[in-house]
Amino acid sequence: MICIASCQGTDPVGEEYYLLSPILIAGINRPSAPTNLSASYDLASRSIFLQWQPSVDPDTGAVWNDYRIYYFLGAPPANIYLDRYRLASSNRTYYSIDSDPFNGTIYFAVTAYERGSESLPSNFAEISL
């Protein structure tokens, strides 16, 4: 179970530049951003469901297979690469999060990540509970 209300994380300052650099390793381009992120909440299971369209590897045209999910308990900051949940390597373009009772709005974004390269974020999706 993921406790959204109490999870926090930080990234080193150097990683912020690393994530925002358009070409992170010579010859390897950043993947395209995932699109059409949507979020819904199921009251019976107390779960948040996220779903998105896959991003594409600009070098090969293949569908990307590793995603990071970011969440924010307030409006998304300028640097979204903090307080994240990462979905392990898979071809999945959906994710379910078990949630403790929470009152407020939670914002989500998804990025594609692989081989030391991370995409720009998807659109933001929000859930108000």
Q: So what's the CATH class?
A: Mainly Beta
Unreliable residue stretches:
1-23
CA gyration radius, whole angstroms: 15 Å
The end-to-end span amounts to: 18 Å
The number of helical runs is: 1
Tell me the total number of β-strands: 8
Note the main sheet: 5 strands, antiparallel
Percent helix: under 10%
Domain count: the total is: 1
In the CATH hierarchy, the architecture is Sandwich
Overall average pLDDT: 72
Examine the coordinates and then state which fold CATH places here, giving the name of the CATH topology.
Immunoglobulin-like
Strand content: 35-45%
Which structural category do the helix and sheet elements fall into? mainly beta
General shape: elongated
Order of helices and strands: HEEEEEEEE
Give the name of the CATH superfamily: Immunoglobulins
Summarize the structure in words.
With 129 residues, the chain is mainly β. It has a single domain, classed as Immunoglobulins (Immunoglobulin-like). It contains 1 helix and 8 strands, in the order H-E-E-E-E-E-E-E-E. The protein has one helix spanning 13-20; strands spanning 35-42, 47-53, 67-72, 84-87, 94-98, 105-114, 117-118, 125-128. The strands form 2 sheets. Strands 3, 4, 6, 7 and 8 form a 5-stranded antiparallel β-sheet that branches. A 3-stranded antiparallel β-sheet has the order 1-2-5, with no helix packed on it. The longest helix has 8 residues, at 13-20. The two termini are 18 Å apart. 24% of the residues are buried. The model is unreliable at 1-23 (pLDDT under 50).
